[in-house]
Fold this sequence. Notes:
It is a single chain. The chain is α/β, with parallel strands linked by helices. The chain has helices at 11-26, 39-52, 80-87, 109-122, 159-164, 166-169, 184-188, 203-211; strands at residues 2-6, 31-34, 62-65, 67-69, 99-100, 128-131, 153-156, 178-181, 192-197, 229-233. The longest helix is centred in the first third of the chain and has 16 residues, at 11-26. The model has no long low-confidence stretch (mean pLDDT 97). Bound molecules: 2-phosphoglycolic acid. 2-phosphoglycolic acid binds at residues 37-39, 132-134.
Amino acid sequence: MIRVRIANREQIPVMVTEDLRRQLERKPDSVLGLPTGSTPMMVYRELVAQQAQGKIDFSHVTTFNLDEYVGLDEKHAQSYKYYMYENFFRHVNIDLNNTHIPNGTTKNLEEECRRYENLIEQSGGIDWLLLGIGLNGHIGFNEPGESLIAATHVQKLREETRTANVRFFGSSQNVPTHAITMGMGSILKVMKIVLVAFGKEKAEIVAKAINGPVTTWVPASFLQLHRDVTFVLDQEAASEIKSI
Ligand code: PGA
């Protein structure tokens, strides 16, 4: 079931932080699933600010990122490893040994996907996952298509996704063609999911995810099958939702 909460854009990171703070109060050693992209940036800023004030504590958490580009190492400014370190990990009291991101530069990518999926299992599974949503409905890098893959896998990126990311890479040739991503099954196994979206450009896909049929052509629509999902949206992103 998808719950919807609508707030001013500035309030959204505060609401998400509050939700995570309550999660960590219940279970200080929670396993967290974390996204990258522009939407979560505000959330990371708020988490860093609240940790600096001693209001939230990451010292016992384990984290798994949703995805990583194939071919970019941690020194590449657009790798998600770099993003996480620069925007979150280096500013908070988290043990880097407990942070996990798929390795997109290993020779054996299939083996890396299996290793990552097993590692999530061995950690006891993800308790709380933060998600963004792509304009084409992807979550993680589970792209729309004829079918979806359940476990962590190598995903060929669709052209619209590569185009949406040109802004980070300068030119389209520089945008990676593939990524490692948690699969739809990895995501649906999470205990609690919070999806954040804002802006008018996300309104149509958010409405499809919530009100439309469950279809592999809108991967986020699979969240309708999960029992604890909250979409946290600003007015613009929520503007095309029909009541549920
Ligand atoms: P964005 O990306 O936050 O940069 O819009 C969302 C996504 O593609 O998951």
